[in-house]
Design brief:
It is a single chain. Helix 2 links the parallel strand 2 and strand 3. The chain is α/β, with parallel strands linked by helices. The strands form two sheets. The protein has a seven-stranded parallel sheet with strand order 3-2-4-1-5-6-7, with helices on both faces. Strands 8-9 form a two-stranded antiparallel sheet. Helix 1 crosses helix 2 (43-49). The model is unreliable at 218-272 (pLDDT under 50). The two termini are 22 Å apart. The chain has two domains: 2-210, Rossmann fold, CATH 3.40.50.300; 220-270, no CATH class. It has helices at 15-28, 43-49, 88-97, 109-122, 126-129, 147-159, 171-179, 192-195, 199-210, 261-270; strands at 2-6, 33-37, 59-62, 77-81, 100-105, 134-140, 163-167, 220-225, 248-253.
Length: 272
């Protein structure tokens, strides 16, 4: 299973357009894919509700950013659409499970600044800093042949983030949104010039999926122990176990290296 999160703190950066098209591309490959919508606006969920039944199936998954948990067992691939202003504990939870993060941005100074701040925070998180989660940038609503395309490419190079090219703003994308479709739902020859703009992004996704993905992304493990009889827990039964007869699970840090102390303290909260 591969989990791809679409993240940018700036609203209106094109996260939902990118998320629905990545999900559409995976479905067009014949992969089982789930589109998770962590955004309060539920744009990707609305898109999915409009999707025609005769198109490749994409499963839906709604989740609140604060209560985000691991994707359902048995899921093949997951694409996550996230809200504006996404940071802190919510961002950390998503990064615990993501194999890759795509950052859509425009050439706007405000978009670039928000994206740079988000990337800076992401690089402090364990899976990203340990190179277990990749980050790449995609330019949206930009013509690659213009100066704006050059500006964004130079910006990404300065940040040390792979740049996957620019995708123009077209009315075609609005029509796709209104029908629950992506460009990958149509015959390739019909939209070949536009699909060329997606070539670097889809190649990056293909490369990600070609790599073996870990079965588990846990940074903690759950073990079971029985509390000593001499020191029973509050409310424990005579056997010294929680509830009197059932061992109480204890969450302990894994042996993964490089986990900051503050993250270890948050582990029990992350896995509620």
């Amino acid at each position: 299973m591969a989990v791809i999160a679409i993240i940018n703190r700036k609203g209106g950066s094109g996260k939902s357009t990118l998320a629905t098209h990545i999900a559409g591309y995976l479905a067009s490959r014949g992969d089982e894919v789930m589109l998770g919508d962590v955004d309060r606006q539920q744009s990707s969920s609305m898109w999915l509700a409009l999707r025609p039944r005769d198109r490749p199936k994409i499963h839906g998954w709604n989740h609140d950013a604060r209560n985000f948990a691991r994707p359902p067992a048995g899921t093949k691939h997951v694409v996550l659409d996230t809200p504006a202003g996404f940071q802190g504990l919510g961002l950390m939870k998503v990064a615990l499970y993501a194999d890759a993060i795509l950052v859509p941005t425009t050439s706007s100074l405000f978009d670039r600044d928000a994206a740079a701040e988000g990337i800076k925070e992401l690089r402090t998180l364990p899976r990203v800093s340990a190179a277990k989660c990749q980050i790449a940038c995609v330019g949206l609503r930009i013509d690659a042949r213009t100066r704006n395309g050059d500006v964004l490419e130079g910006w990404a190079e300065k940040l040390g983030v792979p740049y996957l090219g620019a995708i123009r703003q077209l009315q075609l994308y609005q029509r796709c949104v209104e029908q629950g479709l992506s460009l990958f739902d149509f015959p390739r020859e019909k939209f070949s010039p536009y699909l060329q703009e997606w070539a670097k992004t889809t190649a990056w996704v293909d490369d990600l999926l070609s790599r073996p993905q870990p079965e588990s992304r846990d940074l903690v493990r759950v073990t079971h122990r029985t509390l000593p009889e001499a020191e029973p827990a509050i409310g424990a039964g005579p056997t010294g176990t929680h509830g009197g007869d059932t061992p109480r699970p204890a969450v302990t840090p894994s042996l993964a290296e490089g986990i900051p102390t503050f993250l270890r303290k948050l582990m029990p909260q992350l896995y509620k």
